[in-house]
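thoughts on both lines:
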Amino acid sequence: MKNTINLLKFLAVIFVLTLVARGTSAATLPRVSLTTPQAAEISETVSGSASVISAGQEDIIAPEGLSVLEVFVGIGQKLSYGESVALFDLEEIMDTLARQVSGLDSQRLKLEKLEREETTDRSGVDSAIRNLDRARSEYNEAKSRADSLPSISSATQTLQAALAGEQQAQDALNNLPAGASDEEIAAANQALTDAKTALTQAQETLAAAQKASNDLNSANDRVEDASAALSKAENDYSKSNLQASDTARQNNIDASVLRLDIDKQEALIAELRSLVTTDGVLLATAEGVIDWVMDDGRKTDGNAVVRVLDGSAGLKAEMLVDVEDAIKLSVGNECLVTTGSGIYYRPTVAAVIFAISAPDDREMVKITLLLPDGEWIRGQAIDAEIILSRASYGMCVPLSALHSDSNGYFIYTVAEKSTVLGIENVVLRIPVNLVSMDDTNAAIEGPLGSGDYVITGSNKNITEGSRVRIT
């Protein structure tokens, strides 16, 4: 009875210690948050900050680097189309025009080179194929000659037999008795002559068999060398093809940028030629009230010489993007912009791309957006997001759930596992393929169902096999 009571006390202590251990262990485990994959729309975008300007604002621009001799108009004055705006140094215009025309010719020549199709030289492979064919033909001829002759071992045996026959004939002649008849002597001499002829033939046959064997080995070596040379030529040709493909892709990118530069250069030359026809006088290309003019004596910087406003035309916004993003854009692309400047109320409305400029010297392109009606303020900075593409995906997770290493992309999920402390949640690693992503979500493919939970966050570092608590 006493032993039973002691056993029960021992089991009770073990139970209490187990509970304490389990509680202590659970308290130190990483806490993770979960979610399930959801269907979502993912967009490819180009984002930036834009500045609101008057849609009726028109900058009357002169080519960069020209000296302004005199400005004929002033702020507040009403300007009409074709009216004289400013006077520039005509000699300076002519010099600039000559340089720009020369530069345009150089750009066009460069574009011509970039647009040429990249070809690889296959002559090395063709030459190696011809050499291999020739080597194989020589090998076949050598083999045919070798096959028509006895083997070296057989020819050697024949030679040895001929040597023995000659020796026997010689011995027979030498051993004739003193009273041998003339017929016996003649027969012995003839036998020796025949044995010597057979020996000569055997020697020639062995020499021919050895030469044929050597020629066959040499021909085989040439076939092997030609095969190795062909493999190297084909490998070099394959590498050249890959390099040509990479070069062609880069040339396409460079050509796209250069075409924009050429458009800009052609527009600049047209402006310079227009100034030459007016003896250096810049004529108004817009009408309205003058908002700003350049001072006399300064050099143009490619921006406005005179700015004209038409307040009835609404508002636009301008933003700068780098040329690599700009080549993906087209006039008419949708753009989302945030309105107002409040902290709590910043609704998003749709604008569209109205114009795309040529790249400037910093390889930046000005994008002009046509804004919808709203409470815009001239000079206001707004956030703009140009949408290049949209697509819906059935399995998307937050970016915080997606991880990657040298083996590719993966997500973490949890599974229940029986341990000595009871049922616990253990981290599993699931490899996935990344299909698309934006600033918020990632579309994935993998062995995962829409009802499965994925880990989106943890208060501690976790890896596959980590025990965790679920918040």
The chain is about 45% helix and 30% strand. The chain has a mean pLDDT of 84. The first strand starts at residue 31 and ends at 35. Helices lie at 2-28, 90-115, 123-147, 152-174, 182-277, 323-326.
